[in-house]
Every structure is written in C-alpha cells, then in structure tokens.
Amino acid sequence: MITCEGLVKIYKTDEIEVVALQGLNIQIDAGELMAIIGNSGSGKSTLLNILGGLDRPSAGQVKVGDWDLLKITDKQLVDYKRHTVGFIWQNNARNLVSYLTALENVEMPMMLSGNYDPAYAKQLLEWVGLSHRMNNKLQELSGGEQQRVAIAISLANRPRLLLADEPTGSVDTKTADMILAIFQRLNKELGVTIVIVTHDLSMAGKVGRVVAIRDGMTSSEFIARNSAMTADDGSGTGLAGDDHEEYVVLDRAGRLQVPKAYLTALQIDGKASMEFDGEKIMIKAPKVITASEGTAPNSHTVGGKTK
Ligand SMILES: Nc1ncnc2c1ncn2[C@@H]1O[C@H](COP(=O)(O)OP(=O)(O)OP(=O)(O)O)[C@@H](O)[C@H]1O
C-alpha cells in the first residue's frame, strides 16, 4: 500500500537547511499493523506527516495506494486527506469540543464533510468501547476515553490508512494496552492499514513488524517470531529479543547503516575494510599501514611500477 524510495525531506529556514529524511526506503503492505521507532529527531513525524498529506516531500518516491504524493496537486491532496487517510496524535483530544457529547464530537466532522451518518458514528464509538459513554459530555470523560473518541473520529471518513503519532504518549499503561487492542481489532475487522510512530517499546513490541529509523533513513527492521519483544540486546533499540528477528535494511544500491556503537567499539571512522569469505561479509577497522610494511594493500602495480 505504501512505497517510499529514496524519500528526501529538507526543511529550509532563513539560514539553515535541515535534512529530516535522507533517502528513506520503506514498504508497508495493505492490511499491515506496524510500528516505527527511532530517537528524537530521527524523522519519524516527518515521515508520518508526508504520508498523511500534511507535509510535502522534497524528492524521491512516495506512493500510497494509487496516489503519488510527490506529484499530487493541492486539490487532489484535499481529496486524499478526506478519503484515504485518518490521523491520530498524542494530544488529539485537545481538538475536541468539551461541552459536546462524545457522540456529537464524532458526528460534527461528519456533518462538516457532508457525510453525516449517525448510525456509523454510534458504531465507531462501540468499536472503541465507548457505547456506554456516548451521551456524556467530553469534559466528563477521562483522558484515555477522550483519546478513544479521537480514534473514533479518525475513522469517520472510512480511511484505508490510519496514521498514529505517539497515540499512547500521554496515557497510562492500561489505557495504552486498550488503545493497542482497539488498533488490532480495527486492523483485523476493518482491514485498515495502521502505522504507529512510538517511543513506547512495549507497544512496539506487540506488533508484527517494527521499522527503526536513524538519521532520516530506515536502519533496521524487527519481525515477530512469536508474540512480544521486550528484551534489550544493547543495540540501542531495546527491541531484539527471542521473539523478534532483527534485520539490517539494505537499499537498492546495497547501502546499509552500521550502528554507531559498533563503529565506535572498533574505532572505525570514515573507512573500513570489507571481506567476503563465501558465506559472510565482514566489516573491520582498516589495517594501519606503517612505512616499514611497504606498499599499501589497495594500491596496484602496472607495468612493474607501483601506482
Ligand atoms: N517544520 C520544521 N522546520 C525545520 N526543521 C524541522 C521541522 N520539522 C522537523 N524538523 C527537523 O527535522 C528533523 C526530524 O524531525 P522529526 O520531528 O521528524 O523527528 P522525530 O523522529 O519525529 O522526533 P520526535 O520523536 O522528537 O518527535 C529534526 O532535526 C527536526 O528538528
């Protein structure tokens, strides 16, 4: 459903340019429920905003279904946001109207977009487990309940893709589990593709695939073997355990990102030597060549003279 290839996003301000995404590749299948993790500033929200049509890519390829988000016109983008994608933020509930009921809050955007469907509004609140709180004013609901109203609203336009940026960032563990269970149900029963950006490793650990972003590029991927992944292997993500297999991501040109911790441990800086023994590829610190050792290993001789 989603294909990003060599995706670049550059933010330009008066004096500086920030390269938020530098040639990111990612493929997300229709009907997938997956998570994106990464340190602060790695480009997660930038990616999500581009996929949600809130921000424009600078270069590369980004396709969602039949939509090409690099070439899309402003008018088509409005259509895309209205019909294809739903968005959930950490503090979504802030955008809700406190003196309206939960149901009225779901109905209102439906009315504004000309798709008023009261039966569907009720069904959405049932899906998020709030049928008993439908007629309560928003201010009477807890933070977690308000976030569930926000999830119901994000589905009001029947999107095929749901993007959630830190959806459990400001709720307790029990509510976070409940929100994840709602996502799992929506994914299974409605077939909505769901992409979650999160810092919450326990949440990431409960989905089938997790993609780690580092410095604006996809660096590694964790695929579930069984269910949960919680153990920290020291690789910096805290995700690889017995339950998930970690893979390094290679782009089309064969480039990969080597974790900084590995490079530091081997004091590799700028150059490395690479060997292939028929089964494995080994990356090592370059051999230090002293004057007494003579010719450098990467030089070659032509016509008897060293070049
Ligand atoms: N509107 C903007 N203008 C200029 N720079 C920006 C803008 N938005 C993001 N950036 C920069 O782009 C980089 C990636 O930011 P982004 O918000 O995508 O990271 P993130 O991984 O979501 O971080 P966090 O987890 O802290 O939200 C950062 O260096 C950030 O400062």
TrEMBL record:
GO MF annotations in UniProt: ATP binding
Residue ranges of domain ABC transporter in the record: 2-240
Keyword Nucleotide-binding: yes
A Pfam family reported for this protein in Swiss-Prot or TrEMBL: ABC_tran
Keyword Nucleotide-binding: yes
Keywords, alphabetical: ATP-binding, Nucleotide-binding, Transport
CDD domains in alphabetical order: ABC_MJ0796_LolCDE_FtsE
Domain of life: Bacteria
Name of the featured protein: ABC transporter ATP-binding protein
Protein species of origin: Paenibacillus marchantiophytorum
Organism lineage string: Bacteria, Bacillati, Bacillota, Bacilli, Bacillales
